[in-house]
Structure formats: structure tokens, C-alpha cells
Specification:
The chain contains four helices and 30 strands. It has 522 residues and is mainly β. It has three domains: 182 residues, Cupredoxins -  blue copper proteins (Immunoglobulin-like, Sandwich); 174 residues, Sandwich (Immunoglobulin-like), CATH 2.60.40.420; 137 residues, Cupredoxins -  blue copper proteins (Immunoglobulin-like, Sandwich), CATH 2.60.40.420. It has a seven-stranded mixed beta sheet, with no helix packed on it. Strands 1, 2, 3, 5 and 7 form a five-stranded mixed beta sheet that branches. The chain binds CU-O-CU linkage and copper (II) ion (CU). The site of CU-O-CU linkage has 10 residues, from strand 6 and strand 29.
């Protein structure tokens, strides 16, 4: 993404949300999309261009959605039974604010199009977080928590693979599906010190799924359903793409940006059994403690990524000149756990292909087996001030299949979005959250603001974390029926944030809760 100047000494970006047209595949008619539009773009781009930040260097980003129409791209799928889509849903908490709407005697219709951009994984003040009620409409109406249009990202955190995407209450699933997602990379000295593959040997890969109508338009159910899976694999906006790589080493930044699908990734060689090992060096928010070799014959045979999870990996194609390697997916849909018997790819067993050019191989840039990773920031369990019992629940609300988050001190069966804030970590303290999944399926649970580490999982939360998640995380898969224990420090900013399931259909319909970092004792 190109910056548009500077403000108060910080690079300044003006990014608009705008309609665009996108080709996913030569055999699919062009698709109308909504995308992020930079200063040099003539329309919205999907995926959004990558924002490249530098550790400890502040960025200012102004997001606006003036170019969007007042009718949603997926207007037939806008279901007003979903929470947050009508003024009544805000009435309890914002009685004055709702009085501007017709239903309450005011003059304005409640806007169908609402967007707000969240940079997923950034440590940021609440006013710049892109919270679900900080939305704006292209008609000029501002959500009840809207505070500012120019966001402030200090980037005081480890180099990592982050992303930005839409987060508006009750309509995130449709906004992200329409195309509102892109990478946000934070680079730093540790990347350079490791001497990792860079330039055209460093490639971000955004894995998603879509469905299409014959005319190329996106297809999405008209009525709210708590689970959505597309039947077409789309990587960086291309349907079942073939990527011609050179016989050399690459660094890939993988992101699962799908609404609800999990991907369990491995490679398969069309010619013979041999495939390169995938060396994972990083997870959501930075480098792992130890490099994890992934592939057949290794302890870890595939790379599981739930919605919103990232992996930083190194793959060396130098011994595969002329070969074609398929990126396979074994995760079932809905995803239950790595050991479940429905792990057959969920109708999408192949995601993409690498075709390795038949040219002279190049010596690998680094030897991943001897890399000394800087490793994650660790949290001291002895320093824990508060341990909270949280849970994941199912219910029916407003006639919809709904998932809820249960919080300590709350009501039985789980909290609603509008219930009072119960979770108030004190700034500067360490907490352990024990998240028990009382539903049969896996949920990717995301906390805004903080890094956390997984310290236990399994039926009673005492099994070790997966090797692939032994780093700083912001999203963790809580498998069906298990308890996951995470530890985090609420360090820098106070104020309102959220935690939620990153299956967008769950998040949109109540599987999200505000929490508040407070000064002093709760
Ligand atoms: Cu990626 Cu609260 O979101
Ligand atoms: Cu969920």
C-alpha cells in the first residue's frame, strides 16, 4: 500500500473502501467486489494491498467508505434477524443515539452499509482499534462508539504477519466476503538478522473460500446460517491458482482469511512421493521458540490454520525443479478437532499448486534447521493475578442458531453482546483464561489488543500446546469439547476492546463480547 504523505512525522495512509471488479479465474466472469483502495488505485482492490509497517515506527491510517453505495454488494444476504442490524439492537445501551432513526421517531433510516476496519493483531488504543460499534456508513451516520477516522498504529510489538479486515457489528461476514481484507506486515531488525528469504522470495498467501453464481457474482446464503463454506478455493484472490516458483527457497506468510473454514495444509507431489518440508518459523504475532518441521515423516505432518490464524514458513523448492506440488487441505467442515473422523477436506481437498520452474536450482538462503529464532515474549504463570473461567456455548436467539461466550460472573448459558461488561483486566497484570468449549465444533477464539500464549489444551486443559502454536498468538483454536488455557499480560492500553470467535458467522450473531482494561483494581 502506498502512503500519501506524513502527519506529525508519521507516514500517513488514506485508504478507502470502494467497489471494484475482480477476475478470480479466466473461466469465471468478472466479479463485482468491495475492496480497499489506495491512492494509486482507480477502484477497490481485493485483496487489499499489503500495509508494510516497521517495528516502533508509528503509522497514521485514515479509513473512509464514501465511495461505497448505500445498498450492500450482497444485499440479498443482509438478514436483519442478525444482532446489530437494526436500531432496536442498540436501544438498551444507546437510547439517545437511536432516537435519530425512523423506528424511534427520528429522520434517518438505519444504514444497510456499515464498515469499520480492524487491524488484527495490533497493539493499539481503543479509539483506533476498529471496534464493531465504531462503524461508519457512506451516508455519514456514525456508529454509537465511533471516535475518529484517522487511526494511530504505534507498531510497538514484535515483527509479525498481521492483517486488516472489516469488523462492523452484524455484517462483518458479508463485508469480509465482499473482499475487505488485506495483509499488515510488521518488519523489524530480527527479520533482517535472521537473513530470511526476502524480496520476490517472500510471498504472503491469503487462503479463502468463495461460491459463485454463473454470472460471476459472489454467492452467499440469503438467510443467516451459522456455518458457511465455499466450494472454490481462492488464494490471494485467485481461484485454485497455480504459482510458478523458481527452484529456490521462499518465505511464505500464510493467513486463513476465510469466514468459517479451517485449513489443514500439506504438500503433495504429482510426480513422486517426495515433497519439501515446510519449516514453520512464526505464528500469529511473531517467531516461534523453535522451528517446527512439517511434513510426512515429521512429528507434525500438516499445518492447521483456523480462521484468522497465521503461519510464517520457509519452503525450499531447489530440489524440485520441474515438479508440480499441490497444496492439500484435510480439515473437515465444520471443523471439530485434528483427530475427528470428518477430516476429509470438507469438500475442498485442494487449494492451490506450486509449479517449480525447470531451471537451475539456487542454493538456499538459510538453513532452517540451524536458525536461532528470537522466540516469543513469555509470560510468567506465577505472576498471574486473575484466572477466569470462560466458555463457548450454543443457543437459539431470535429464531437463529446462535453461539455465545460465557464469562466468569455471568449468566448461565452465556453472555449477550448487550450484557454489562464483566471482564475487566487491570492494566499491567497477567491473567489466565480457561476457555471451555461446551459445543461440539472448534472455535477460533481471538482477543483484541494482546499477545497471548497457549499453556494447555485437551479435555481438562493440561495437555501441552501444539508445536505450531508455541509462540505469541492472538487467535487460538478451541477444539470441540475441550478446554484451552491461555496466558496474557494486559500491558499498555486501557479502555474497551473485544474478544470473539473468528468464525465470522458466529461473531456476527453474538459470539463476541466487550472487555475493558482498567486502571487500578476492579
Ligand atoms: Cu480479525 Cu476482532 O478480528
Ligand atoms: Cu465460533
Amino acid at each position: 500500500m502506498e502512503s500519501t504523505g506524513s502527519r506529525k512525522g508519521a507516514p500517513y495512509y488514506h485508504i478507502e473502501m470502494a467497489p471494484g471488479t475482480h477476475e478470480h479465474h479466466p473461466d469465471i466472469p468478472d466479479t463485482p467486489i468491495w475492496g480497499y483502495k489506495g491512492p494509486n488505485d482507480d477502484e477497490g482492490k481485493y485483496p487489499g494491498k499489503t500495509i508494510e509497517a516497521t517495528q516502533n515506527q508509528r503509522l497514521k491510517v485514515e479509513f473512509s467508505n464514501d465511495p461505497l453505495p448505500e445498498t450492500h454488494l450482497l444485499t440479498d444476504s443482509v438478514d436483519t434477524a442478525v444482532h446489530g442490524t437494526k436500531p432496536e439492537d442498540y436501544e438498551d445501551r444507546y437510547p439517545d443515539w437511536v432516537s435519530q432513526f425512523e423506528a424511534f421517531g427520528g429522520t434517518f433510516a438505519f444504514p444497510e452499509v456499515r464498515t469499520v476496519t480492524h487491524a488484527h493483531g495490533v497493539h493499539v488504543e481503543s479509539a483506533s482499534d476498529g471496534l464493531p460499534e465504531q462503524w461508519q456508513s457512506p451516508g455519514g451516520i456514525e456508529g454509537p462508539q465511533f471516535q475518529k477516522a484517522v487511526y494511530d498504529y504505534p507498531n510497538r510489538q514484535s515483527p509479525a504477519t498481521l492483517w486488516y479486515h472489516d469488523h462492523a457489528l452484524g455484517i462483518t461476514r458479508l463485508n469480509v466476503y465482499a473482499g475487505l481484507a488485506g495483509f499488515y506486515l510488521i518488519r523489524g531488525r530480527s527479520d533482517r538478522r535472521l537473513g530470511l528469504p526476502s524480496g520476490d522470495q517472500e510471498i504472503p498467501l491469503l487462503f479463502q473460500d468463495r461460491m459463485f453464481h454463473e454470472n460471476g457474482r459472489y454467492k452467499y446464503p440469503a438467510e443467516f446460517a451459522p456455518e458457511f463454506a465455499g466450494d472454490v478455493s481462492v488464494v490471494n484472490g485467485k481461484a485454485w491458482p497455480t504459482f510458478v516458483v523458481q527452484p529456490r527457497q521462499y518465505r511464505f506468510r500464510l493467513l486463513n482469511g476465510s469466514n468459517g473454514r479451517f485449513f489443514d495444509i500439506s504438500l503433495e507431489n504429482e510426480n513422486d512421493g517426495e515433497v519439501p518440508t515446510i519449516y514453520q518459523i512464526g505464528t500469529d504475532l511473531g517467531f516461534l521458540q523453535d522451528v517446527v518441521p512439517i511434513g510426512s515423516g515429521q512429528d507434525t505432518t500438516s499445518l492447521l490454520l483456523g480462521p484468522a490464524e497465521r503461519a510464517d514458513v520457509i519452503v525450499d523448492f531447489s530440489e524440485y525443479a520441474g515438479d508440480t506440488l499441490t497444496v492439500k487441505n484435510d480439515a473437515g467442515f465444520p471443523f471439530v478437532s485434528p483427530d475427528a473422523d470428518n477430516n476429509d477436506g470438507g469438500g475442498l481437498p485442494e487449494l492451490a499448486q506450486f509449479r517449480v520452474a525447470d531451471t537451475d536450482p539456487e542454493t538456499p538462503v538459510v538453513d532452517p534447521t540451524t536458525l536461532k529464532l528470537p522466540g516469543p515474549e513469555t509470560f510468567r504463570e506465577e505472576a498471574t493475578k486473575t484466572t477466569r473461567q470462560m466458555s463457548l456455548e450454543t443457543t437459539t436467539l431470535n429464531g437463529l442458531d446462535t453461539h455465545l461466550l460465557g464469562e466468569e460472573g455471568g449468566r448461565a448459558g452465556g453472555e449477550h453482546w448487550n450484557d454489562p461488561v464483566l471482564t475487566k483486566p487491570q492494566i499491567g497484570t497477567t491473567e489466565v483464561w480457561e476457555i471451555t468449549n461446551n459445543t461440539p465444533d472448534s472455535h477460533p477464539i481471538h482477543l483484541h489488543l494482546v499477545d497471548f500464549q497457549v499453556i494447555g489444551r485437551g479435555p481438562d486443559g493440561t495437555e501441552p500446546p501444539e508445536p505450531t502454536e508455541r509462540g505469541n498468538k492472538d487467535t487460538v483454536n478451541v477444539y470441540g469439547g475441550e478446554t484451552v488455557r491461555i496466558i496474557s499480560r494486559f500491558g499498555e492500553f486501557s479502555g474497551r476492546y473485544v474478544w470473539h470467535c473468528h468464525i465470522l458467522e458466529h461473531e456476527d450473531q453474538e459470539m463476541m463480547r466487550p472487555y475493558e482494561v482498567i486502571q487500578g483494581n476492579s
